[in-house]
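target protein:
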Amino acid sequence: MSVLFLNREAVEILLPFGECIEVMAGALAALARGEAFQPLRAAHWLPDRRGLLVTMPGGLFAGSEGILGVKVLTVFPANAAHGEESHQGAVLLFEAERGRPLAFLDAASITAIRTAAVSALATRLLAREDAGDLALLGAGVQARTHLAALREVRTLRRVRVWSRNPESVHRFARDESARHGLRIEPVATAREAVAGADLICTVTAAIEPVLEGEWIAPGAHVNAVGACTPNARELDTAAVVRARLFVDRRESALNEPGEILTPLREGAIGEDHIRGEIGELVIGRVAGRISPEDVTLFESLGLTVEDLAAARHIYRKALEQGRGVSLEI
């Protein structure tokens, strides 16, 4: 029996953002239709709280080829200071008929690409058609991938970036301006970054809010990406209260992110403040933006079905193109 090993380089070649956005739309639509197996993730802090060990199992059963799998990764938020990625691990892919292992893929690159692709999908569904003034709060891997992914769904006319590390901000602005041929403005404060912006992505490792509700312009769309544990949040309560809130999955949203759990605990919102899941938007089950003045918010937690759909897409293309390394087990 053999499995196909696909490293970071192969993943990045085989999973371009435009394709990944459509793959994510299909995966989240399948989840909304009940064609997926999606338990809550298990995340365990190390005793010294330096990092997390995370396991994410799941399955997709839409179409003729069902798949099972698990993503196993570590999350060490301080890695960025050492020039290393915070998320590292593997995605293990199995076929669903007899459970035969198919592939072993780099998780960090899949996570980076599919997370940004889901935000781009949410942006396509929820942001105003004329939105193009982007604020990036954070200057790491996810800021880079979000910039690339959002360019697939909206024409960006202005980009500002802020981070708590000024050196990272200026390096990001320099490198990504050159990469995209687009002027990116480094700014000194988060408030300056989001002033008048109609697209906002929070992609930080913050545990306390970096975005306040009163700063958000009417009509803006926000992708909240960085915080995914009960004691961490990037947005304050006011930002959540004033927004039409959408999530990748209700059960996850009511168990994992401080962005939602804190306002619930404070009594500022009820569970019905969640207007719907992104997959429900894709299949037309719920309404998205109602008015041009609405503030819309997508709380991104990341789901195993997203990883598995991306992994299956990569695996199929790798077989067609003869990429990857076959390993006997």
Summary: The first strand starts at residue 2 and ends at 6.
